[in-house]
């Protein structure tokens, strides 16, 4: 069954999330604080497809949980829950490895749509690994392994999140082509995605920190002003 970890300290919101995800067919493990979320993760052997983490919690907050889960598992899908006033925290969460965020308040349909979308990406990636795909894409000094979702730069491995891998695969499949932000959004997050387009920019910034020699002066992931980005090697 599709398994999801929900960490939210406000009981009413946690119950709302858990009830709706169970109705949507998910096996939900819930936690009321960051410490419990990390404990539940270990108790279940890390066997989760998706984690939903509230940003603001006493003790270990959602950002720290996100960072620790991402360090433990590059394949898990992570969604942050945030208040409208936590704009910088949203960006920080994405930079720490989150795949998406949902702003409170949210409807049951938005919740399940976001989780379903992320679960599909995680599931497809896992199927590729299980089918033992051995294909590789090469671009200049970079090699993208489609089986283990790893990016190599001059023989050095760069670990990627689900979203980062899909963006890099899109770049590698379209070298030198200017890709519209909307095209990237639709390709990676799906046309039904209801979030903000700036999530693309945050993930590009995160990728530049991993692949560029000088992230502030990128030469591989190039900005096409007023349009989007292109991969140039």
Tell me what the structure shows:
The protein is of the alpha/beta class and 233 residues long. It has helices spanning 11-23, 34-43, 62-72, 87-95, 108-130, 162-173, 181-189, 198-211, and strands at 3-7, 27-31, 50-54, 77-82, 100-103, 136-139, 142-145, 150-153, 156-159, 179-180, 221-224, 228-231. The strands form 3 sheets. A 5-stranded parallel β-sheet has the order 2-1-3-4-5, with helices on both faces. A 4-stranded antiparallel β-sheet has the order 6-7-8-9, with helices on one face. Strand 6 (136-139) and strand 7 (142-145) form a beta hairpin. Helix 6 crosses helix 7. The radius of gyration is 18 Å and the shape is globular. It starts with a strand and ends with a strand.
List keywords for this structure.
233 residues, Rossmann fold, Arc Repressor Mutant, subunit A, 2 domains, globular
Task: Count every helix, treating DSSP H or I runs of 4 or more residues as helices.
Answer: 8
Number of strands: 12
The level 1 CATH classification of the largest domain is: Alpha Beta
Approximate shape: globular
Query: What does the largest sheet look like?
Result: 5 strands, parallel
């Amino acid at each position: 069954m599709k398994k999801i970890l929900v960490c939210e300290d406000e009981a009413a919101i946690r119950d709302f999330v858990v009830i709706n995800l169970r109705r949507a067919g998910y096996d939900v493990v819930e936690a009321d604080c960051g410490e419990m979320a990390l404990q539940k993760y270990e108790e279940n052997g890390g066997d989760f497809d998706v984690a939903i983490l509230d940003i603001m919690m006493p003790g270990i907050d959602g950002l720290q949980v996100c960072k620790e889960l991402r360090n433990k598992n590059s394949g898990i899908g992570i969604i942050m829950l945030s208040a409208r006033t936590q704009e910088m925290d949203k960006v920080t969460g994405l930079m720490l490895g989150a795949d998406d965020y949902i702003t409170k308040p949210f409807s049951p349909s938005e919740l399940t749509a976001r989780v379903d979308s992320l679960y599909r990406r995680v599931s497809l990636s896992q199927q590729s690994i299980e089918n033992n795909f051995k294909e590789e894409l090469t671009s200049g000094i970079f090699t993208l392994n489609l089986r283990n979702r790893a990016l190599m730069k001059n023989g050095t491995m760069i670990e990627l999140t689900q979203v980062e891998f899909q963006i890099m695969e899109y770049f590698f499949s379209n070298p030198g082509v200017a890709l519209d932000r909307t095209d990237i959004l639709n390709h990676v997050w799906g046309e039904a995605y209801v979030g903000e387009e700036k999530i693309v920019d945050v993930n590009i910034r995160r990728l530049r920190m991993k692949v560029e020699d000088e992230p502030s002066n990128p030469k591989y992931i190039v900005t096409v002003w007023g349009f989007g980005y292109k991969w140039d090697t």
